[in-house]
From TrEMBL:
Belongs to the cytochrome P450 family. Keywords: Heme, Iron, Metal-binding, Monooxygenase, Oxidoreductase. This is Cytochrome P450. PROSITE patterns: CYTOCHROME_P450. GO terms for molecular function: heme binding; iron ion binding; monooxygenase activity; oxidoreductase activity, acting on paired donors, with incorporation or reduction of molecular oxygen. Pfam families: p450. Heme binds at residue 188. SUPFAM superfamilies: Cytochrome P450. Its cofactor is heme.
Length: 245
């Protein structure tokens, strides 16, 4: 995909266009080698595109399987905007229920469900979770396991955005256990961009269309496979444009 994009002639600006422009100018301060471009854009595609697409697929499925949640979210979005161009990176911050929906989607289907490993510093080792771990060992917590554990969440298999909005039934939830972007100084540096993308895309889709899950995708969630990233079947959804006066 990287090689194909490098060979493509287009006026559309994307991340690659800036790398190619620096190569054309021969600017040694910003020019990347072919190897650097391949490595960098492999990460950008996997971490900066596929993960957001996975989350948007997952939240769409959960919304269509939980019509009460969908109705609440659609009502919030369509009562907040009169035109789609009003949906911006700033204005979506006012959609409190939408943020809870996305937090719940990230909990129940983290795009990176496996362990994001850390290296225990060499030397004396460290105590992690009450257990001594020798230096040089790799440690980590699988996001799926932590966010689906009944030790951390009540009704862990249920899609309930209200748990993020102070619902007293879920007051004992350990919400900090859901860390889909990892945490600390080595956490995902694209977190803010991902939230902006997810909020804008979801808001615009639900503002413009009514959605219905097709029968062929009823078992979409059960057919998922994970190999670091999720392998997904097509999510078949019927979209009907909202007719406004």
């Amino acid at each position: 995909m990287v090689s194909k994009r490098m060979a493509m002639k287009t006026d559309r600006k994307d991340f690659m266009s800036y790398a190619l422009r620096a190569m054309e100018k021969g600017d040694p301060t910003s020019m990347m080698s072919n190897e650097e471009i391949m490595t960098t854009f492999e990460v950008l595609m996997a971490a900066g595109s596929e993960t957001t697409a996975t989350l948007l697929s997952g939240v769409t499925y959960q919304l269509l399987e939980n019509p009460n949640v969908l109705r609440k979210l659609v009502a919030e979005i369509r009562s907040s905007f009169a035109h789609s161009h009003e949906i911006t990176m700033v204005s979506v911050n006012n959609l409190k229920y939408q943020l809870a929906v996305l937090e719940e989607a990230l909990r129940i289907m983290p795009p990176v469900a496996t362990t994001l490993r850390r290296l225990v510093p060499s030397g004396q080792g460290e105590v992690v979770g009450g257990h001594f771990v020798p230096g040089g060992m790799r440690v980590g917590v699988p996001a799926w396991t932590a966010s689906r554990s009944p030790l951390n969440f009540r009704d862990p298999e249920s899609f309930i955005p209200e748990r993020w909005l102070g619902d007293v039934r879920y007051a004992e939830d350990r919400r900090e256990a859901s860390q889909p972007f990892s945490m600390g100084p080595r956490g995902c540096l694209g977190r803010s961009l991902a939230y902006a993308e997810m909020r804008i895309v979801l808001a615009r889709v639900l503002f413009e269309f009514d959605l219905k899950l097709m029968k062929s995708s009823k078992s979409w969630l059960e057919n998922l496979k994970n190999f670091g990233l999720w392998q997904k079947d097509p999510l078949m959804v019927r979209l009907r444009p909202v007719i406004r006066d």
